[in-house]
Structure formats: C-alpha cells, structure tokens
Design a protein that fits this description.
MgtE N-terminal fold; single chain; 9% strand; CBS-domain; 280 residues
Length: 280
C-alpha cells in the first residue's frame, strides 16, 4: 500500500512501521522489496528482486541438505525447482558446493536448462569442473540451436572442452550450425523440425507427431515432395481441425514464406512480424 492510500490513522501506522524497524514508505514511493539477489560479473552488477525471499530460503535448504549428505531429499527439492531459480540458487552457494549440487540435479533435461541460465562465470566453472561422464549426457539434452548459442558464448578453450563431451549426433549438429554467421538465419535455426510428404493423411500426421520427442517445439508441420522440397505448411490448429482421412496436400498452405540460411536476422524478424509467424 502506498502512503497516500493509507486509511485514517496513517501517521500512526507509519510510525508503527518505523518502530518495528521497517522504514515508512514516502508518499508516491513503493515500499522496498524484502530481498535483492545480486550477481556481479566483471564490471556489471545485475540486481534481481526476490520479494518473498524464496531464492535465499531455497538456497539455505539446498545447501543444508548437501552438507548433511541427504542426497534423496536434496534431489527431490532440486527436481521441483524452476531452472531459472536453480541458477540463481547456485549463485548464492559457496563456490565449492556449486558443482556437486549441479551434478545432483536428478533430471538431465532440467540440468541442461539450468546450465543455460547460469551466469557466465558459474557456467564456465561447471563446464570445466563437472565430471565428463555426467556433463556429456546433460549437454546432449540441449536442442542444437541452444547448444550452438552456448558454445558461441564460451572462450575457445572451454568451447573445445565442451565439444569433446558431446555424443556424435550432437557434435555433428553443432558443427553444421557453427558454419553459419551468428547474425544470419542459419545461425539461429534448428535442424530439428517436423515434415511429412503431401500424400500423408491428417491422421497419419498426428500419429507421427506424437512420436517426435526430439523436436523441441512444433509450431508448423512442413509438407515436402518426394525429393524433400518444401511445398507447403500446416499449422497445428489446421491439423487438429481437419478431417482425419484428408491428404495433407488438401489442407496445407502453399504460400510459404521462406528465407535462405544467409539471410540476416533483422530481415527474418521483419518477416515474422509482418506475417505474424511463429516460425519461419
């Protein structure tokens, strides 16, 4: 509540706040937040507000469980936390506790998300100090485009170390994407997409879509000819509302907006905005 919104007796209420050790808010100003989480990177200081003190409380709980060696309770707490919160929590912990607690995250996909959320310094430490046999499978969980972004942010030595931990498929995807300049469409694209031939039916497309666990996010179904050339696109809404036995060629949109891999990102963004696309 602002001071200007206090009911009659606001002076007494403000005085009571001061008596309890809380500074009374000045008219027109918001009360200060309970907690601020601060990250220092080089000359940059990033301050995030933690109104409920949740990050600090979770960090204390996680560190206490780690000190006790209570692995199962620790993993239960870690599994329920949001990746961004876990990244903030790792930034609150003693330095020698960061890697062991990161390695205790029970799900590889969750650990991969946390890794991308870490501050540059912590991320480098985790990559360099984590056990290779644990970090490798975690890195393989990252979609190719996000893995490429991650490698692009690392120094050459750390990037080389990370690349050596990848499995053959992840390394091949990474090498394919790294050949494109980072400010081009190729630099931000993903090689994982969902495509079927135009002879397939709507029902067949839906069944095939259910088995596509490796595709991170599907906005459109791409329809290709027998030689793999793009002929049309279908949105998920169109797919789900069409009659099951309808061939894809009858429901696809043939007016496809395309870009080349060397198209600059700004031009791609303009097309996405102009045609209100979810992907291109």
């Amino acid at each position: 509540m602002f001071a200007s919104e206090r009911p009659p007796g606001s002076v007494q209420a403000a005085a009571a706040d001061c008596a309890k050790g809380h500074p009374a808010p000045v008219q027109g100003e918001r009360p200060p937040p309970k907690e601020r989480v601060m990250f220092v990177e080089g000359n940059n200081v990033n301050v995030g507000i933690d109104p409920s003190g949740k990050i600090k409380k979770l960090a204390d709980t996680i560190d206490r469980l780690h000190r006790r060696g209570a692995m199962r309770p620790l993993q239960k707490v870690l599994a329920k936390a949001h990746p961004a919160d876990l990244a903030s929590i790792l930034g609150e912990l003693p330095e020698d506790h960061v890697v062991p607690i990161f390695e205790a995250i029970p799900e590889k996909s969750l650990a991969a998300e946390v890794l991308t959320e870490l501050s540059p310094r912590l991320r480098d430490d985790v990559i360099k100090e984590s056990a290779p046999e644990q970090l490798g499978p975690i890195l393989d969980e990252l979609p190719p485009d996000r893995l490429t972004d991650l490698v692009g942010e690392l120094d050459p030595e750390t990037a080389q170390h990370l690349t050596g931990l990848l499995n053959r498929d992840s390394r091949a995807d990474l090498e394919d994407l790294l050949q494109y300049a980072p400010d081009t469409a190729g630099g931000v694209m993903t090689p994982e997409f969902f495509a079927l031939t135009e002879d397939a039916t709507v029902e067949e497309a839906i069944q095939a879509l259910r088995g596509q666990e490796e595709v991170e996010m599907v906005f459109y179904l791409y329809v290709v000819d027998t030689e793999g050339r793009l002929n049309g696109v279908i949105s998920l809404r169109q797919l789900l509302t069409a009659t099951p036995d309808t061939p894809l060629r009858e429901v696809m949109n043939r007016r496809v907006v395309k870009v080349h891999t060397d198209t600059d990102q700004e031009s791609v963004a303009q097309l996405v905005d102009k045609y209100r696309l979810l992907a291109i």
